[in-house]
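Project standup — Tuesday

K.O.: blocked on the structure for the chain from last sprint. Re-posting the sequence here as requested.
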Amino acid sequence: MFGTIRKHQSWLWFVIIAVTILGMIVWSNPGKSGNQQSGSGDFGSIDGKKVTAAEMQGARNEAALMFFMRSREWPDSAGASKQFDWDQEAYKRIFLLRRLNEFNIHSDPDAAAQLAGTILRQLGNGQQVSLEMFVDQILKPHNITGEDFQNFLEHDISIQQLIAVIGAGGKLVTPAEIESLYVQENQELAADAVFFSASNYLAKILEPTPTILGQFYTNQMANYRDPDQMQLSYVYFNATNFMPEAEKQIGTNLNRMADEAMTRLGTNVFKFGKTVEEARTKIREVLIQDTATSNAYVKAAALESLAVKTPPRAEDLIKVAKEQGLEVKTTKPFEKEYGPSELNLGANFPVASLFNLTAEDPFVTPPIPGLDGVYVMAFNKLIPSRIPSLEEIRSRVVTDYKFVEAMRLAQMNGRVFSQTATNELAHGKTFAATCTATGVKPVEVPPFSLSSQRMPEVEDHADIGTFKEVALGTPAGSVSSFVPTRDGGFVVHVKQRLPIDATKMKAQLPDFSKAVRQRRENEAFDLWFNQEGSKALRDIAVFRRSSPMGQ
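H.V.: unblocked you, prediction finished:
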């Protein structure tokens, strides 16, 4: 089938930085080869039949590909590893693949080739690369082969066919039921809302006495705990300082290299500029920057090789750098979640890994290329978690106290208003008159339905899903109970349910019907999958320590 994909190679697109020819490819940082599995071992049984090592490895690779297609990152990357249970996903995949064989469902190679084109074109954003480049530069760094990719495609199509077979019963929805669902999701409401925000009540909150503030601080003390923080010593090799040397090093080859790059880029060259000359100038800059960063890395590696001794000591970096006339800087204290603000390491750098450094193992090796240079880094000190005293954070505690009190006042007023409005409406008074009498200002919300995605008048005050749920549950001509939110709360007055636009409904029903049947099909398959999987995977350890299907 791999040959079939090559026949459709014009479809094979992928997301890469436009200067692939300069060796800078999105997703290409391999991280650890987390999807490697040993060639032997006991992988348990599914339906009483042993899982082989080859079966497990293939399933792990296909599970990794599925995660990549959904999230645009690999499951062995720092940000994704916590979201992905490799073993669970692999066993689920094996379960489905065995069911495909039982149902004798197999995909057509041409269909798989077309799916490859569709997937890569969607990911590609209009940049065409060869299949070989995709395999070599995107898959292989993660120990995934072209054969794994073709297996994944063929199996994915077959799984879709399995879903269609198992979920066929779920698609039996009557026209009357579909029309009812359409009305439920698309009938619009006309409503007013009153928002009670804590910020509107802050001016009414008096300064707390020392006793009151001390009590508040004591009760909230856990919320003021500072997490562990770290500081690093580092030497920064700014790529800009290596630009003149890089330009001289490239010399007369610069124009030739830029022209070759432009030829390889084809029409994508205009991502670098509106004109050919603008693009050529930018590509020249990238070539020089790339060479400058490479030279900076050589210098950084040389420094690190001298500083890292046995046993390793962070102070050796300071000593060696001083001997070479280089400045050693110290970062501000930083947390595991955010990393050092002074270092331009890029969004994908696993800053949490820096907290593995210790005085006994102080160096980050090898040097780290950042977005604008190269860093040699070493552990400086760890600042343990602590709760600052009230005197240290008095102004912050006062602000928090006032907000909490303002929130309490806003929510108390909201509850009183809801009850008052309910009583007044019952006695024939209008909602507008009640608002005027109580001194609150209603907000007219443009007509909306359950399917509405944007509600600008609501979004700054409340979650629109919650707001819609409350409004749809409130009878026309009535007000809702007070609904608390993070910054206060709200009350909804539903004026009326607007009539459905029959012409619009007639035009939209075909697509809506298709979506409903697809949703029901998936729900039916999910039910089967959980029931059958619970039985088939009952002997697998990773499913015994959680719910049957790992949910």
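K.O.: great, moving the ticket to review. Residues 37 and 338 are 32 Å apart (CA to CA). Residues 2-170+525-544 form one domain.
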